[in-house]
UniProtKB/TrEMBL annotation:
Entry protein name: Uncharacterized 2Fe-2 and 4Fe-4S clusters-containing protein, contains DUF4445 domain
Short name of any one Pfam family annotated for the protein: RACo_C_ter
Source species of the chain: Paracoccus seriniphilus
Domain of life: Bacteria
CDD domains linked to this entry: fer2 (cd00207)
Annotated GO MF terms: iron-sulfur cluster binding
UniProt domain 2Fe-2S ferredoxin-type: residue ranges: 2-108
Record InterPro entries: 2Fe-2S_ferredoxin-like_sf, 2Fe-2S_ferredoxin-type, Beta-grasp_dom_sf, Corrinoid_activation_enz, Raco-like_middle, Raco-like_middle_sf, RACo_C, RACo_linker
């Protein structure tokens, strides 16, 4: 017959196709993922295949040497200009003459899979909302005087099955010139967001090789972090972060909300500040990657509800008081120019849905990244910042709440507290016998009691204690008997160390005396211990509340999310009681899970659908009105909380 059998690897998809069909068309017929940007014109080389590279025997096919047509002129030309790897063919040029096995190498797969480097190492499938398509547009004539836009629209419909094109004014203003400059051959950049008509984002003369770029932002209360991502394969081209310029209006969210309440133009000032911050971030990322910000054609943002409202220019006042209703909680897709973000002027920004008025899109991004809804046993995800966001779930259901920890874990309201930066003490050990401390400083490899430390630390100095250091020192002070169960620092007589020094009516523990060399004296005060007790009890009580609701006494594992979570020692967090009792080996860190979630939503429309559906199923628990919260909060005050972890550390 005139049919031939073709098997595609690695998908294993097979079927009979008419003899003489191109490999690209055969792939499309059989639903095989084979990329193409130029639509089979031999320009883009995205359709490369390796004929016969699969295992014939396994597929029961004998492949003749001339199963494919010989290399044609288009391929020869391509080979001359750009070089075609040995054994490779352009799928749009090679035609099937008899049975064949065709391998589709990873870089030719349209929805290529990307392994995410997170705790769970899951696979993500590339399915971006913006892609480019090469089209040939018919020229107008007196008999066919349709508009230029209609011509582009019907070329896309005929050549790529993209129907119902729309466009914004800035692009319309350019299309006449571009069509003529490209001699009616152009590359159309098309946005195909969920539930929206396809949009022409840009039109470029000829075949355009420049990769499309996307921006994923984790907009935090304290810092704004962003990744610049290539939309074809998800690789990160640049990452950077900066302070949220809103900090000058208040360190934490509540002080920003009250600034907005007290000043008529307060919210508007904060909106302008955060948008300017995003602008700076875009400029930095583009600069680092050596690209133009105009190449950024899609973006995603995750943030907490207050940042969400302030970014959008919505009044955050209602978020500051029960019952905390947000103006809008659904996922949003908004023109970048409305938010004054200086990326491509026709780009849209996708903002992940809020889970509730006090559990944000950042928590939704954490759910997307950590997938508690797919866990067989209950997993607790804790994202600690100025607020702790807590998610507890398994495949049956997912619960979420937030708990007001205050900024203590970020070093604020702590005598010698500071943010994690070079010079900050991040690890602490106290000898239980001598009560002498040793510590590590960010930016220095060695511990304070090791050779070379003195010299190494000169570059940064010892400037304060950051969040992870504070957690460790409080736990270590308890293990060494410097504080009692209630958190009270003992006198020199009680503790047997002169490092406990009188400080008003209480005592402080002297961690480091740098005064001789002009540095600060770093001490932990009774007030510091109290602030940490309040913060850790808030996290713990939130977790307990979720566990009550879930009907469990213990969680199977704990995931610490966020930049801070990545640096916490699980054992010390358990001793302190920041997290509920759990096998320390089952406490892991997910790094910046919110940022990972933002990147997933940028690379995959399926991820956007998934999180929108999942957020609707999440049960929100309100800590502020739960009567048991206060009870759990008080009960969580003592140290140690987890005695097994205490025994383990105390040796
Ligand atoms: Fe573009 Fe084959 S599809 S070169």
């Amino acid at each position: 017959s005139d049919d031939v059998l073709v098997v595609f690897t690695p998908s294993g998809k097979r079927g009979r196709v008419p003899a003489g069909i191109s490999v690209l068309d055969a792939a499309r017929k059989l639903g095989v993922d084979l990329d193409s940007v130029c639509g089979g014109r031999g320009i883009c080389s995205k359709c490369q295949v390796a004929p016969g590279a699969g295992q014939f025997a396994k597929h029961g096919i004998a492949m003749a040497p001339d199963a494919l047509t010989a290399i044609n002129e288009v391929e020869q030309r391509y080979d001359r200009l750009r070089g075609l790897q040995a054994g490779r063919r352009l799928g749009c040029q090679a035609r099937l003459q008899s049975d064949a096995v065709i391998d589709v190498p990873p870089e030719s797969q349209l929805h290529r899979q990307v392994i995410r480097k997170s705790a769970s190492e899951r696979v993500m499938v590339m399915d971006p909302a913006v892609r480019s398509y090469f089209i040939e547009v018919t020229q107008p004539s007196l008999h066919d005087p349709d508009s230029d836009f209609d011509r582009i629209s019907s070329a896309l419909a005929q050549q790529w099955q993209i129907e119902g094109l729309t466009a914004d004014l800035p692009v319309l203003a350019r299309i006449q010139k571009v069509l003529r400059k490209g001699d009616w051959q152009v590359t159309a950049i098309i946005g195909q967001a969920e539930g929206m008509a396809p949009r022409l984002i840009d039109l470029i003369p000829g075949f355009d090789q420049q990769p499309l770029l996307g921006l994923a932002v984790d907009l935090g209360t304290t810092t704004i972090a962003g990744h610049l991502v290539a939309l074809d394969d998800g690789r990160v081209l640049a990452s950077d972060g900066l302070m949220n310029p809103q900090i000058r209006f208040g360190e934490d969210l509540m002080s920003r909300v009250s600034y907005g309440m007290m000043n008529d133009s307060g919210a508007a000032e904060m909106t302008a500040a955060v948008r300017a911050g995003l602008g700076d971030l875009v400029a930095r990322l583009a600069d680092e990657a050596g690209v133009s910000a105009r190449q950024i054609v899609d973006a995603t943002i995750v943030c907490n509800p207050v940042m969400h409202h302030l970014l959008l220019g919505l009044d955050p006042v209602e978020l500051g008081q029960a019952p905390f209703p947000p103006v809008v909680s659904d996922a949003l897709s908004l023109p970048a120019r409305d938010l004054e973000v200086p990326i491509h002027e026709a780009a849209r920004i996708y903002i992940l849905p809020l889970i509730a008025g006090h559990v944000g899109a950042d928590a939704a991004a954490v759910v997307l990244s950590e997938q508690p809804q797919k866990s067989a046993a209950p997993v607790l995800v804790v994202d600690v910042g100025t607020n702790a966001e807590l998610i507890l779930g398994d495949e049956t259901r997912v619960l979420a709440c937030s708990s007001p920890t205050g900024p203590a874990f970020e070093g604020a309201q702590i005598n010698n507290g500071q943010r994690a930066a070079p010079g900050a003490i991040e690890r602490v050990r106290i000898d239980p016998v001598t009560k002498e401390p040793r510590f590590r400083v960010i930016g220095v490899e060695s511990w304070s009691d090791e050779d070379g430390f003195e010299d190494a630390v000169k570059a940064t100095g010892i400037t304060g204690i950051c969040g992870s250091g504070i957690i460790e020192i409080v736990a270590e002070m308890r293990i060494a008997g410097i504080i009692d169960r209630s958190g009270l620092i003992g006198s020199p007589e009680q503790t047997g160390t002169a490092r406990c020094i009188p400080d008003g009516r209480t005592f402080s523990y002297l961690l480091h005396d740098g005064s001789e060399t002009g540095g600060p004296r770093i001490a932990v005060t009774q007030g510091d211990i109290r602030a940490i007790q309040l913060a850790k009890s808030a996290v713990h009580a939130g977790a307990r509340l979720l566990m009550d609701e879930f009907g469990i006494e213990e969680v199977d594992r704990v995931v610490l999310a966020g930049a801070f979570g990545a640096h916490i020692s699980p054992l010390h967090a358990l001793v302190l009681g920041m997290i509920p009792n759990c096998d320390p080996a089952r406490v892991t860190s997910a790094g910046n899970a919110a940022g990972t979630g933002a990147r997933m939503a940028l690379c995959s429309r399926a991820a956007r659908r998934e999180i929108e559906a999942e957020v609707r199923r999440i049960t929100r628990i309100e800590t502020a009105i739960a009567p048991l919260f206060q009870q759990h909060f008080v009960a969580a005050n003592g140290i140690p909380h987890a005695t097994d972890a205490f025994d383990k550390l105390a040796g």
